[in-house]
Design brief:
This protein has 178 residues and is mainly α. 67% of the residues lie in helices and 0% in strands. The protein has nine helices and no strands. Helix 2 (32-40) packs across helix 3 and helix 3 (42-56) packs antiparallel against helix 9.
Length: 178
Amino acid sequence: MSRLFHPATEQAPAAAQPLFDLIRKAAGKVPNAYALIGSLSPAALKVALEGDAALIKGTLSRAELEAIRIAISAQNGCDYCVAAHTMLGAMSGLKQGELRQLRSGAASEDAKRAVLVDFARRITSSNGTVPQAVVQAVIDAGYTPAQIVEALLAIALISFTNLVNRVNDTPIDFPVPA
């Protein structure tokens, strides 16, 4: 049950309506998390959507982005985002075994992607400067500095929605993974 009162999407601020229209066009519905964010802060939803649009135009694959999102959502304890991104991860080509591994904290089946996911998990579970060896491992796996920055943006964006959903206890409107 939602903890943060918010108006229904139809009564949300006018600034949210065009964003909801874009989401409906792309996804067929306005997921509960986006409905909450947009109803309370159209500006925050706009930033999240623009960030995701920038990532799609970037150089990381959709599978790499979804692997990061699933791993970080599981690490952060966000059941909502785990469900949503497991579905999107399957659509991006991630296999069921790898999806399970990402949710459980295990390494990805794909060796290169495993290094990227490990990097993301280390970033979100540590304080201070990241050791050079951690960064070098990502570069040695074949990722560019630009892709590292894109991974950091993916981490920041999913962390925001994880926090919103954990505070709100947003009702899950995606299939819950077994």
